[in-house]
Amino acid sequence: MDSHNFTDSSAPSTTPFDDEETLADPSATPGIPKDDQLLAGAISIYQRVWTEFYTWGCRDALQALDSLARPYASLRSNDLHSGYSLYLDDLLGSDDDYLSRSDDSDCLTVITMRTRMMSYIPVCDTITRTSVQPHTPYESCTPADTCISRHPQDPAASDRLQFIPYADDSMFDYISKMPKDWYIGFAWQHEQKDPDVELIRLEALRRLYHGQGLSISMIDRLCLLPNARRGNEAGILWDTMQRDLIVWPGAALSDLSPDPHPNISFVPRAGDLKGRIHSLLPLFCGNLSCIHAYCPVHVGPHAKPSARKAQSKSLDLQTRDGWHPCCTSCFRHIEKSQDGIEVMVTEWDDSEIADFQTVLEIIPDESPCNLAIICQKPCFEVYHYRCQIFPDENILETSTDRHVRNRDMNIEFVDSIGPERHMTYDYYISE
Questions:
Q1: How confident is the model over 218-233, as a mean pLDDT?
Q2: 56, burial (CB in 10 Å: exposed 0-12, middle 13-18, buried 19+)
């Protein structure tokens, strides 16, 4: 292994790590040269990132708490008149009952200045027991079927079973559906991932890759960080792609490239719905047994929705068979003329209209009732702006198109990816 000169000249931090694998000995793995200088430089960078992150995290947490605090207004302190002080001393000194009371008694002493009367109010804890109503039952959004990619002869296969939807259902006997001697435990009980540590590892990986010129395989051979990613195996890159990352100065204010993975080098703005859809869909597996990004079971490419032209006019939306009013604000309750709607419609801002246009590019002829759920807007407003974006005079249709659209359609969701598209040996678990 060629020696590398690390440019991170800052003194290594003495901050302790809470994971033992951080300082793993490279000599414990066969085939790794004992290059102490290379490993020490990588550890120094890792320690520096660790210190930077938690130094920033403390300040960021304090700022977040300060924003929630109530504005503090100092009160002017007025000294008691010496006469009142003597008056209170005389009153308390003349009360034998006050002097005889034990110090541990929970009472409030109330003194009425005009009548020179002293009274005691006992302090007691009042426990109010309120019954907590359970949440309304709901169905899980995870699929009931899950494909698990694991080859019995693969040494890199995990020995812990990944999450199975409905595994806690007593009617689902997953033990009988799982081959024996495949797993020794459950991943959700043992593989607890700290999101802060993931960010630190990702930034350390980025600095080693771009700042020091180390390859991904060379970084993996150091055994300093978990495997980044090889092929479709899970690793730091795959794990961090499954959620939105925190933007912190150590990773944002840098001259280095964003990351060592080409597919996540471009991150659209949070308000750019169209850009987010087009950046995510090529990586998103729509197979019913997955429904998440960077699927390790099925191989792409995955289909992207293409822009469509609107074919339904406003009258078609109102008279389409099978559609009923969704709520009191449904567009079907409004008169067919646009005059009755324009009085009640609120003005949408430019970003809301842009997001709505993005949705209409994919499903232009969808019911306003469903579009209202997607856009979280009143149904009649969705209908109004849909008519503004797609005026009837700009929609061309044929009698055949109208006949096809007005008939009832039964939509069935099926897997379009067959077994021949699976990357490796798959074991299908179903309820």
A1: 77
A2: middle
Average pLDDT, the chain: 69
Q: What pLDDT, on the 0 to 100 scale, is given for residue 430?
A: 34
CA 147 – CA 430 distance, rounded (Å): 9
The CA distance from 308 to 326, in Å, is 25
Angle at CA of residue 56, ends 55 and 58, nearest 5°: 70
Which residues have C-beta within 8 Å of that of residue 332, sequence separation ≥ 6? Answer: 318, 323, 324, 325
Tell which residue, 221, 225, 212, has the closest CA to residue 47: 225
Residue 261 contacts residue 237 (beta carbons within 8 Å): yes
Q: Kindly report, residue by residue over 74-125, the tens digit of the pLDDT.
A: 545 454 445 555 556 665 555 555 545 545 567 777 777 666 677 777 777 7
What distance in Å separates the CA atoms of residue 315 and residue 427, rounded to the nearest whole number? 50
What token pair was written down for 152? 């019995």
**Residue 203 has which token pair?**
């930034």
Structure token digits, residue 418: 């067959």
Q: Is 425 left (phi over 0), alpha (psi -120 to 50) or beta?
A: beta
Is-contact 284 292, C-beta < 8 A? yes
* Spatial separation of the C-alpha atoms in residues 337 and 315, rounded to whole Å: 10
For 173, the token pair is 């006997």
Domain residue ranges in the chain: 20-55+191-293, 141-188, 314-395
Strand-pairing partners, residue 298, are 422
